[in-house]
Design goal:
Blueprint lengths: L5 H26 L6 H16 L3 H7 L1 H5 L1 H6 L2 H6 L1 H32 L4 H7 L6 H11 L3 H25 L5 H23 L1 H28 L1
Helix pairs in contact: 1-2, 7-8, 7-12, 9-10, 9-12, 10-11, 11-12
Length: 231
């Protein structure tokens, strides 16, 4: 049968993923609501389609692994706005590094404490710890500390959507007048989704958000062996 062809399945799920993302993107442009973001619309639509077709997540990811591989180059592309704002970064690199370190420690520490308080299993706890890092870095860290990378990717998406939504509300309430502060908030709290939202506010905010996201990712990947030993 045609459906049993690996080439057809790869083409079908790849086209479906891209189509649902574009549908969510168009919906978000019209509605501008947190729940209309393509980062939610696409996964939910794909889950519904997989249930109807009786397909498993393993089958889906095997056919669309090339899309996951594109996350690396997409993350590297954030270097363009970072380079454009290099003068600003040179002036404030110490503050940015300190903020990235503090934010990362707070994110991981809070997950560890709350997971222990609610009695979550070790595998779930370790999978949640890298949730505040962009997906390529988060999956690497998760694998190194004993988590489940695929589950970590889900937590990253949820954190990004909620972080970007709450970030917009915080920007309106908190006295964050500088682009540096607003960008750092989005880059630390919502990684890739936050960078996209910060770019919508301003070029400076987007550049700082991209830099903080990359700094946090690199720092956590380098620290992963130490975390794995301690945990």
């Amino acid at each position: 049968m045609v459906w049993n062809s690996s080439i057809f399945q790869a083409l079908f799920w790849s086209v479906a993923t891209i189509a649902f993302y574009q549908m969510g993107k168009g919906l978000h442009v019209r509605l501008r609501q947190w729940w209309s973001t393509p980062m939610l619309i696409a996964p939910i639509s794909l889950v519904c389609l997989a249930i109807v077709l009786h397909e498993s997540y393993r089958d889906y990811i095997r056919q669309t692994h090339w899309l996951v591989a594109l996350l690396g180059p997409a993350t590297v592309a954030f270097a363009v706005p970072v380079w454009e704002q290099r003068a600003l970064i040179r002036r404030h690199w110490a503050v940015l590094l300190a903020g990235a370190a503090a934010g990362s420690a707070t994110a991981m520490g809070s997950v560890w404490v709350l997971s222990a308080a609610f009695g979550l299993s070790d595998s779930l706890r370790l999978s949640m710890m890298p949730r505040s890092i962009s997906t390529p870095f988060a999956m690497t860290v998760s694998a190194q500390i004993g988590g489940i990378p695929d589950l970590t990717a889900i937590f990253v998406i949820v954190t990004g959507v909620l972080g970007a939504t709450l970030g917009e509300a915080l920007v309106q309430v908190l006295p964050l007048r500088s682009g540096l502060a607003r960008g750092a908030l989005f880059g630390m709290g919502a990684h890739g989704v936050g960078v996209a939202r910060a770019l919508g506010i301003g070029r400076e905010e987007g550049s700082v958000a991209g830099l903080v996201m990359v700094l946090v990712g690199v720092a956590n990947v380098l620290a992963a062996p130490v975390l794995a030993y301690l945990l």
